[in-house]
Amino acid sequence: MYFLTYELNGLQAIGLLSPDKENIIPLLATEQHYYGEITLADTMLTLIQQGDAALKRISELAGQVEGNKDFSLLIPVKSVLIMAPIPRPTKNIFCIAKNYADPNSVNPKYPVIFTKAPTAVIGPGGSINSHKQITSALDYEAELAVIIGKKATYVSKEDAMDYVFGYTIINDITARDLQKQHVQWFRGKSLDGSAPMGPYLVHKNAISSVNNLTISTKVNGEVRQNGSTRDFIFDIPTLISTISSGITLEPGDIVATGTPDGVGANMNPPTFLKPGDEVELIITGIGTLKNTVV
């Protein structure tokens, strides 16, 4: 299942993407149509919190639409504004640094963890603020993001995947100069608009192997990053187990899993983002996240 948050006629809603990815099944309207009641939550965060019962109901709704060939409720994707799946996370985004194996450097012994502010989140098509008043070194980082599905405290690696709801794409936009100035990375990583996210929240059952996803970045059509999650140093179970050991993860929490080689800071010469640049992130099985720098 591919979930999305969207805006239509000034109203925000959540929906399920049709199999051809051209239409949206509006969850609340469809539930009302078939069952005469609304039990599903009206935001992605609260939907995740409803757990397996909501997923069962949604699966039934999708089956009703397809089985009855009743497409009257469908909304064309092209007619809506797709937002970040979770437009405003309730907590900071957990982020992992240096998580792709590099034969030219020493791998960290433990996951390197930092966070990004919830106010950094924007959706697909949203403008990445260049913040030219304070930075001249804005960079991109394509990352697979894990969305937590239920409360997780001291979770073992063996059980960790049971706590995953699904996956999306996140661009860990970073002001490299601010990152260096402040030593601690929070400010350089948390500027407004520095966490583009989306376009969909893909339920974990729709991804056959999360450990073998191609992840790439294009800037103005030029491929800059081209990696695979098979090169993770610390896999998703390790990350969830590590973070949840003493820090409770909750439904809707986001864990960004790190970025492969190819960021602008490591180019020769370093090449940073500028107004007008189009940044496109692609992860197989999830989709394409595209934003423009202003």
UniProtKB/TrEMBL annotation:
Q: Name one Pfam family in it.
A: FAA_hydrolase
Tell me the GO molecular function terms. 5-carboxymethyl-2-hydroxymuconate delta-isomerase activity; acetylpyruvate hydrolase activity; metal ion binding
Q: What is the name listed in the Swiss-Prot or TrEMBL entry for this protein? A: 5-carboxymethyl-2-hydroxymuconate Delta-isomerase
Indicate the segments forming the Fumarylacetoacetase-like C-terminal domain, all copies. Answer: 96-294
Q: Which family does it belong to?
A: Belongs to the FAH family.
The EC number of this protein is 5.3.3.10
Keywords, in A-Z order: Isomerase, Metal-binding
One of the protein's GO biological processes: carboxylic acid metabolic process
Per its UniProt entry, what is the enzyme's top EC class, as one word? isomerase
Enumerate the InterPro entries for this protein: Fumarylacetoacetase-like_C, Fumarylacetoacetase_C_sf
Q: Which organism is it from?
A: Pelosinus fermentans JBW45
